[in-house]
What does this fold into?
Amino acid sequence: MSSNQAVYRRQWRLLWIFVLLFCAGRQVKADDAISFATRVAPLLQQQCVTCHDAELAEAGYRLDTYKHLVRLGDGSPAVIAEKPDKSKLFQVLIHEDENSRMPSESDPLPDTSINLIRNWIQQGAAFDGASEDQLLSSLLPKTEHPQPPKNYPAAIPLSAIAFHPSQSQLLVSGYHEITIWNLKGELVNRITNQGERTYAIDIHPTLPHVLTASGTPGVTGEVRIFNLSTGALASVLATADEVIMDARYSPDGNTIAVAMPDGSTRLIDSKTGSEKRQLLGHSDQVCSVSWHADGKRLATASRDHTAKIFDCQNGLSVATFTGHTKSVNDVAFVNHDQAVSVSDDGTAQLWNADNGKRMREMARNKTPILTLSIAPEKIAVSGALETQWFKRDGRQSIKRFTDSDAWTTITVFDSSGEIFAAGTQSGEIVVRQKEQEPIRFNAIPGR
Ligand code: HEC
It folds into this structure.
């Protein structure tokens, strides 16, 4: 080969390299790199992880972490970078045989989702989270919320309250935070990075985890889990385009029921964050959810004027109570087969949880009843003007009292049922303990 020819070839090679580089550069621009963490993981989490997590692992295949999802149960690759058509993870989405197509037992994914996975594999199936061992649920984008003011310029209505597991402190809804107070009314801690308003606070039955439902009315809603000891955000479990009014741990702590603004209730695995089931039937926002002690049934209250009982194992509605004429604000089981609900219609109703038939009207007021709490021996129903305590069978009134000029918006008993704390629309907390004089304080930092 003459030296001239060699130079000529080298120049051609260089030119080709330039052409290739140019095209590659353009392709990335035209077709932005798809993030696994923010786009692929949430999709797989919602659609696939229920059947392919550590517990179930259908076909021996796990999809709950990146490290797992790239390999099938037999160790062969499920994802081959840049070759979607050869990747099992993609093949199963478009399988012609309905029995082998994923997600199993449902409609195929929409084209946009199928294309997302195809393009992600085509681009190299890269991982962009912190660790390939991370559960996909922990990769959900965690919006940082604004810091709350150190001292509040004005009082805010209280909308959520819970006893600390020690029973000697109260967790209370704040503005972009949960405030923690001792029973003398001293602020002892603050958990920040929380949605604007908090509508529910629940503590895990055995772990130091705080579950919250929150949001900004008309804009956004969220369910978050925080570490109670450190205040650190652990995960974001659900989001919506309207506030989420309630979220509760099942008695064993393994499942979380989330009251969604679209009328559905979601059952979410509290460890993996994957959705186990949707409970459908309400036609408007779900305001409250409450577990049966057996962990198998769930009561729901809705703005659609009804309350329902669901069987969580098959997802079916067992009973519907239609005896209210306005939004149902709160509901709870009072014993094995009876439930109580309270409503904007001013009534508290006791009904049969197996068939939805009314058993007794416990209270009828001219103003709304907003909230109810259950203790081992009592039921408390509170609203605009007063709180009433009933015996647990709902038949006998024990006590009625008015604690404040402001409406009582939220109440809770401690685990023994001896301490009762009520929060009001003007930010005040009233703590009643046996026959002692009630303790009052403003659960508003700086006021
Ligand atoms: C309702 C439960 C369920 C859901 C949801 C589900 N799968 Fe499956 N998956 C199965 C079952 C059952 C099998 C075994 C099917 C068979 O043997 O034909 C399977 C098999 C697979 C396999 C084949 C594994 C192998 O070794 O051949 C892949 C890949 C897979 N699923 C991916 C997915 C993806 C991706 C999703 C979400 C888009 C998903 N699955 C959602 C139940 C489910």
In short: The two ends are 91 Å apart (CA to CA). The pocket of heme C is lined by residues 47-48, 50-52, 58-59, 61, 72-73, 78, 88-89, 92, 100, 102-105, 109 (CB under 6 Å). The helical segments are 3-30, 36-47, 66-69, 88-91, 111-122. The chain has two domains: 36-139, 161-442.
